[in-house]
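so my prof wants the structure for this chain in the tokens format not the other one, which i didnt know existed until like an hour ago. anyway here's the sequence
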Amino acid sequence: MRNVYIWYRSAMCVGCSLSVPYGTSNARRSGRPAHIKRVLDERASHRAPATRFRDELEDSMPEEQAENTLRALISWARYAEVFAYDEDAGVFSLENPS
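here's what i got, hopefully its the right format
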């Protein structure tokens, strides 16, 4: 768990800039709250399925690691109130699930 926390603080810091360095792969971008937030901001509905980001993560890591990464990202983003995640629907949004 300590490695996830350190990796999160260095690579995915919620309070950090929302920019992604040039040349960063889609899979690495999907592991950042900033990428998910940007996708939600760009969509009229402000909603996106979790499978979209899980698939991007699986391009660069094993399935189990991608799932764990996404779970950690959801926990931290909820805590920081960056976006919401409806577990029943498997959907990220900018508003709290009902």
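also thought this was worth mentioning. The radius of gyration is 13 Å.
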